[in-house]
């Protein structure tokens, strides 16, 4: 059922399916952010999206394309938490049973929320087990359809609606983006957004932003092939810990992305504090990398820059620690 | 220079002055909030406004109406913090010198931000001194124009633009509000918003929401005269500690408000946690009272309800304590 490729038309179709389902998140401006960065900045806060991240978009689009038979048999997804919540929320809305395979060390908030959406959570061990193996075996046993977190064209098309909205909202305010900064894990959001922006705003540079030690897109864009992250690497950005660029996403991203930037955990924490104190937004670590890249880089001074804040699902204890720390 | 009364026309004029200056804050929907309250809810997040609260609106409108001579002599305001930041930010933008009289126990964040906007902060003791006496003496000595926090028609007209936006944003989405819940201290936001709503959405019930022990509007609306709060009362809602309804604001509010509701500190904390975990918004205690009233009252079930979140200027340490606490 999944589309075999991704075009702007698929993103438009996804937008039609999501109408009245996903939240049309606003495009925010804050003069202080302009002053602090020397850029003209618009922020797309997907932390305000249903399920607390952009992942609802792709999940709902993919689930709404299932056959009646597939819906009856249920869906299965593996996810560190945001795709889990997106799939669980979309499945609940569509009356589909969802099984979610999550790492044992996933943030408690994400586990609780996933269950609150009515999904069954099955844990795996992040370093000792392969989540795809666990997930595939379970899906086969249950006859469930796997909703891959990024290597799925319907998922990518759904994520692309975020870019479609940014382009339309910017145009409605006579803003032409020089640059758009996108948080990047497996590359699904980047691929979808890039597909939309290529059509609607082809002059906009698209930069993926990754956590330090998970700079697989930066290295892959350079080498031209899908580079791996070193197993055992860690980052505060639990949402962005994919082992390598997705196969399908990278085929798109290698053509459409301008480049990739990397930010450290300390920079991510600073960006989260900035979002708390200046933007009044609750942003999770992985959701803050694009903002961190803007705040830490002087290369965007004088530019009109879009920043996607991709999610806000963060444990209260971690958030409390981060905002209490001195800068 | 200040207007001698308040009409919808004044609110419209204020909206014209604020165009491109204040942030057109979005009108947010979140299906989970509907589910959790049994109402159809729209949220106006003024925590996303410049200076972190709606106060920028009134301050900018009032300052922009000063004569050239008044501008040269500077302005003075007394405030627990949000009006301070609003006046300081507007003054900085207009090149006006600002002196702010603040209580010694004002949240550190509010003091720091006020200074960051270039204003001079002069402290007074909340219980031992009368802030108006301190402010008036200082203003006279400096020849500065006093920008009262709520008993000023230009300030009220500016705050009213928040209501004007709500009415227009709701109408653009075919939403008719049965109820609008407004955070209430001195009554300036209520008076301005009520003036706008009376014109644009006369069928909407307008409820002021106050902290426990600061229910002066509730009692005043009942008795028909301006009741005082007991000196020495305390509340977590530092932004809403006015001793009584304003004289000018109450003349409007007594006619236009449907009633007033009261929430406890514990209910405010719960609302702040809800905003953190579900809405992904940073809300200060005083900014959360209207949301608290919605979450705690069953009377709004089945209604279409607007909620103003009036500010997000909260010290990180306090916010951390509140979000870490169990519900």
Give the helix/strand layout:
The structure is a homodimer of 327-residue chains.
Chain A: H1 8-18, H2 31-37, E1 40-45, H3 55-63, H4 68-73, E2 75-78, H5 82-94, E3 98-103, H6 108-116, E4 120-124, H7 131-142, E5 145-146, H8 153-172, E6 179-183, H9 188-200, E7 205-211, H10 216-223, H11 247-256, E8 259-263, H12 265-279, H13 289-296, E9 304-309, H14 316-324
Report on the architecture of this protein.
Two copies of one chain form a homodimer. By secondary structure, chain A is of the alpha/beta class. Chain A folds into two domains: 219 residues, Rossmann fold; 91 residues, Rossmann fold, CATH 3.40.50. Chain A is built from 14 helices and nine strands. In chain A, the strands form two sheets. A five-stranded parallel sheet of chain A has the order 1-9-6-7-8, sandwiched between helices. In chain A, strands 4-3-2-5 form a four-stranded parallel sheet, with helices on both faces. The first copy, chain A, is globular and about 55 Å long. Chains A and B meet through helix 12 and helix 14 of A and helix 12 and helix 14 of B.
Rough outline of chain A: globular
Cα end-to-end separation of chain A: 49 Å
Helix content of chain A: 40-55%
- In CATH, the topology of the largest domain in chain A is named Rossmann fold
CATH architecture level-2 label of the largest domain in chain A: 3-Layer(aba) Sandwich
| CATH class membership of the largest domain in chain A | Alpha Beta
Number of strands of chain A: 9
Strand content of chain A: 5-15%
- Count of DSSP H/I helices of chain A: 14
């Amino acid at each position: 059922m999944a589309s075999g490729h991704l075009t702007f038309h698929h993103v438009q179709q996804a937008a039609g399916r999501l109408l009245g389902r996903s939240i049309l998140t606003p495009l925010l401006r804050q003069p202080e952010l302009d002053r602090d960065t020397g850029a003209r900045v618009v922020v797309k806060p997907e932390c305000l999206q249903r399920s607390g991240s952009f992942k609802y978009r792709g999940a709902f689009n993919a689930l709404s394309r299932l056959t009646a038979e597939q819906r009856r048999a249920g869906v299965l997804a593996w996810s560190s938490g945001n795709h889990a919540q997106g799939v669980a929320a979309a499945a609940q809305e569509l009356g589909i049973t969802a099984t979610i395979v999550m790492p044992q060390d996933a943030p408690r908030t994400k586990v609780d929320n996933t269950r609150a959406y009515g999904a069954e959570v099955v844990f795996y061990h992040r370093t000792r087990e392969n989540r795809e193996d666990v997930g595939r075996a379970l899906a086969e046993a249950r006859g469930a359809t796997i909703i891959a977190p990024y290597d799925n064209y319907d998922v990518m098309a759904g994520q692309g609606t975020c870019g479609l909205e940014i382009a339309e909202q910017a145009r409605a305010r006579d803003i032409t983006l020089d640059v758009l900064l996108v948080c990047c894990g497996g590359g699904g959001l980047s691929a979808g957004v890039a597909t939309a922006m290529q059509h609607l705003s082809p002059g906009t540079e698209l930069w993926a932003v990754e956590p330090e030690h998970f700079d697989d897109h930066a290295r892959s864009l350079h080498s031209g092939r899908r580079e791996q992250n070193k197993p055992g690497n860690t980052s505060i950005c639990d949402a962005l810990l994919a082992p390598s660029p997705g196969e399908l996403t990278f085929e798109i991203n290698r053509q459409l992305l301008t480049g990739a930037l990397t930010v450290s955990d300390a920079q991510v924490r600073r960006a989260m504090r900035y979002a708390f104190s200046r933007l009044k937004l609750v942003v999770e670590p992985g959701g803050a990398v694009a903002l961190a890249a803007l705040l830490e880089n002087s290369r965007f001074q004088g530019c009109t820059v879009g920043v996607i804040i991709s999610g806000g699902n963060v444990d209260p204890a971690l958030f409390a620690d981060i905002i209490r720390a001195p800068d």
